[in-house]
Write a structure and sequence with these properties.
The complex is a heterodimer. By secondary structure, chain A is mainly β. Chain A is built from no helices and eleven strands. Chain A is globular, with a radius of gyration of 14 Å. Chain A starts with a strand and ends with a strand. Classes of the chains: A mainly beta, B mainly beta.
Chain lengths: ~110, ~110
C-alpha cells in the first residue's frame, strides 16, 4: 500500500538549534499535514498544506508543500525542550480516499537541555 | 471548546474477550475516523463515518471489528474475541465534512491483550 517515508527517523539536537525533517511519497499528494505526538497521547495537528509550493508557519514551526507534490518539509527554529516528541507527516493523495490520511512512521526528536 | 474525547484511556483484557471503545468527536464535526497505532508506527486508518453512515472500511478492519455511529454523534468500536495482535493504541479523530482534510485526534485508548 501507499507509504510515506520520513527522515530522519530520529535526531538529537542542542537546545536553540534549528531542526529540519522531511517526508516523501511515491505518488502525488494534494494535502500534507504535520502532527506532533507526545507519549501516551494522540497526535496534535501543527500545520496543514494544500497547494504546491505553499509555505506556512505556526510560531517557530514552518512547513512547505514541495513543488513536485511528492514531498513536504517541516522546520523548527530555536528548539526548546518541549519540542521533544514524535513528528508525523500525513497526506491525502490524488484519487485517494475521501476519508483516510496516510501517515509516515515519524521522526523522533530529542533535545538536550 | 472541547476536543475529541475517548473512553476508556486504557484497557487490559484477556485474549478471547470482547471490548468496546467510545469516541465523542468535536460537536460541529460531521466526520469521525478510527485509526490504529502500534509501537514505532504512524496511525493506520480503520474506518470513517460521515454523520451516521459508515463510508469506508480498511482491509485492516477484520470481521471481528465493528464500528457504529448510530445518531451521527459519538461512535463505538467493538473488537470481538480479542487476540494479542490487537494490542495497540486506538485513535479517534474528527473533521468537518468538506473544505479541508484537517483531522483532530483524541487521546486514544491503549488496549493490551494478555
Amino acid at each position: 500500500g501507499q507509504q510515506l517515508n520520513q527522515s530522519p527517523q530520529s535526531m538529537f539536537i542542542q537546545e536553540g538549534e534549528d531542526v529540519s525533517m522531511n517526508c516523501t511519497s511515491s505518488s502525488i499528494f494534494n494535502t500534507w499535514l504535520w502532527y506532533k505526538q507526545d507519549p501516551g497521547e494522540g497526535p496534535v495537528l501543527l500545520i496543514a498544506l494544500y497547494k504546491a509550493g505553499e509555505l506556512t508557519s505556526n510560531g517557530r514551526l514552518t512547513a512547505q508543500f514541495g513543488i513536485t507534490r511528492k514531498d513536504s518539509f517541516l522546520n523548527i527554529s530555536a528548539s526548546i525542550p518541549s519540542d521533544v516528541g514524535i513528528y508525523f507527516c500525513a497526506g491525502r493523495n490524488y484519487g485517494g480516499s475521501q476519508g483516510n490520511l496516510i501517515f509516515g512512521k515519524g521522526t523522533k526528536l530529542s533535545v538536550k537541555p | 471548546d472541547t476536543g475529541v474525547s475517548q473512553d476508556p484511556r486504557h484497557k487490559i483484557t484477556k485474549r478471547g474477550q470482547n471490548v468496546t471503545f467510545r469516541c465523542d468527536p468535536i460537536s460541529e464535526h460531521n466526520r469521525l475516523y478510527w485509526y490504529r497505532q502500534t509501537l514505532g508506527q504512524g496511525p493506520e486508518f480503520l474506518t470513517y463515518f460521515q454523520n451516521e453512515a459508515q463510508l469506508e472500511k480498511s482491509r485492516l478492519l477484520s470481521d471481528r471489528f465493528s464500528a457504529e455511529r448510530p445518531k451521527g454523534s459519538f461512535s463505538t468500536l467493538e473488537i470481538q474475541r480479542t487476540e494479542q495482535g490487537d494490542s495497540a493504541m486506538y485513535l479517534c479523530a474528527s473533521s468537518f465534512m468538506s473544505g479541508t482534510y484537517e483531522q483532530y485526534f483524541g487521546p486514544g485508548t491503549r488496549l493490551t491483550v494478555t
